C-alpha cells in the first residue's frame, strides 16, 4: 500500500486504532446509515470544491466515476475483500454518486460500505476456519504481499485462494519464530477476531469521511475532508498543545492503556499513574457518574478525558501489574494545558575530530512547521512557533561556539507556510522566499521583511523523501540563495498550498453545527528561481542513499498530481555561491563512505529492500524461508559485532547538554561502553517474530522503540561529517569562504 495515500490510510488507520471487538451479534447485523448533518456537509463541500479549488472541476458524471473507483480502493486498498462481482453490482452507481451528493441522499455509498463490512466478516470467518487445518509448507508456493496494483479477484474461489495463502504466510512467520501449532492457532484466531472488532467499531462519521475523501482526493491529492473530530486533532497538531492530563493512550485487548506520561503534566506530577496502567472508567468533576469505557474506541475515551483547563476528571484505573479481577483505584486529576514537546524543535551538538582540532556541529531537528495560529491572532507574546523556537536554539548554539549548523528536516511533512518564510528569514538578510500562484494566475511573492540574521555562518539542510511542502520551501530557498548545502535524498515534491475552510459557516443551525472542514488546495508555490518543487521535489547538492520507495511514495506516485511548471523568477540577490565547494565536499564524502562499514551495511540493506519490492513475492516453502531467515540473522550478527567493537576515532561524538531536562547520553567512546550498548539491545527482536504490534507486550514494544531511537543514525552522522569538512575547507581557503559566506564577511 502507498504509505502516503490518505484514502487508504484513513480506513486502515481507523481499523488499526480502535481497540477490540464489540459484541459480534450486535455488530454483524448493524447497517450504517448517513446522518442528516452529513448530507448537508457533503452538499456544501461540493459547492466549495467545484468553485474555489485551485483545480476546480464540476461535480458531474465524470467526477462520479473517479469517486466510485477511489472509494472502492480506499475501502479495500489491497483488494482482499471485494470481488469483481461486487463492483459490477454497483456499476450503476458510477455515474450517480454526484447525484447522491447534490440530492442529499448518501444511502448508496453507505450501502457500498455495508457490503464491504459483510465481505470483511466473510473473509475473516474463512480465515478462522482455515486455522482448523494445517498448511503444507513443503509445497513450492508464493504469496504476493502488496496487491495495491493487482486486479480485483474474479470469483469467490479466487479470493479464498488468496486468503489461504495469506493465512499460510501468517502461520509460517510464527512457526519460524518458534511457536508450536497450538500457540499459532491461538495467536492467529485472536488476531483475526481483533480485526473484526476494530472493523465493527467504525461508525457513520468514519464512513462519511472515507467517502468524502474519495471525492476530495479525486480532484487533487492534497485536498481532504476532515470530520469534526479529525478537525480538532489537526488543530492540536498545528499548535502543539492541548488541554488534558498529559498521558498518551493505546488500546490493548479491551483496555485503554497508558503508553506514555508527559513530564510535568498533571498525570506526571500526580505520581499516581504509571505506564501500563489500564483506564476502565472516566468521571467528570467531583461528583460526576463513572462511565465504563472498557472496550471503547480509543478516540472516544480520549474525548472523555480531554477537557477545559482547570477542570477536574476522575479516572478509574487498574494498575498495570494487577490481574483483571483486581479492584480498580480512583485517581482525580485537574486538567492543564499540555505542550507536545516531542514535536518541537530540538538541538544537539556533535563533535568531529579534524586532525588535531575538533569541529562542533550544531544539529537542529525540526519535525514540523508548527504555529499556534489562534494565540498569535490574540496577540499572545509567547505563542508557540517553529521559527521562534529555532531562533532561540540558534542563540544557544552561538554561545556553545559551534562551527556549523545542520537543519534536519527528514520526515518533516510541512505545516505553516508563514513559518517556512520566517524560518528562512533567520538565515538571509531580507528578500523573497517563495512565490504563490492562485487559480486565477495571480502571482504573489512572500518576503522575509526583517533585516538581520540569527545565524550568518555556514548551514546545511538534511532532507529525505518525507520532507514535504514547507520543508521544501525552506530547503529550496536555502539552495536558491546559495546560502547552504542541501544533503540527502530528493524530497516529496508537494508544491501546493492548502487552506482550511470550516463548513459550519454554511449550516442552517450554526450553533449546533459540526459539519467538519475542508483542507483545500488554493494555490501552487514556486521557487524564487521560477521553478517549482511540485512533482520533482528538491534535488540535494550531495545525495545520500534513497531509503524510500520513490515509485510508491511521493508526489510522483499520485495519478492526479499537478504537473511541473515554471514561472518568471523573482528578483533576488544570491547570498552566496556554493557550486565551487560542493564538488570538493562530494569527493570527501564518497571517499569516506567507501570505507565506512556502517554506511555500506545501510547501502546493502537498501538494495535488499529494493529487490524485495521489485519481486513482490514471498515464498511459502518452509525450507526456503528458513534459509532466507538464516541469512538475515547472519547479517544481524555482523551488525551486532560491529556495534560491540570500539567505534571509529573519526565518529562524531554527541555532546551532552547539561541544561537539558533529559540530557542525552554521549555516544560510547570506547570498546567497553560499546559492548554495554550492544548488550542493552538484547531482548529486542532483530528478526521477524511473526507478531503484530498489539500482540507483543507493552514493555517489549517500548524497549524496541527505545532501541530504535538509540540506534546509530548513519545518514545524520555522515551529514555532520560533511558539515565538518565544509568548515575545514572554508578555514583553509579564504577565497572560497568569501564566496560561500558573504554574510559572515560583512
From TrEMBL:
GO terms for molecular function: endopeptidase activity; serine-type peptidase activity. CDD domains: cpPDZ_CPP-like, Peptidase_S41_CPP. This is Tail-specific protease. Pfam families: DUF3340, PDZ, Peptidase_S41, TSP_NTD. Residues 1-21 form the signal peptide. Belongs to the peptidase S41A family. Residues 235-306 form the PDZ domain. SMART domains: PDZ, TSPc. It comes from the Bacteria. Residues 622-673 are annotated as: Disordered.
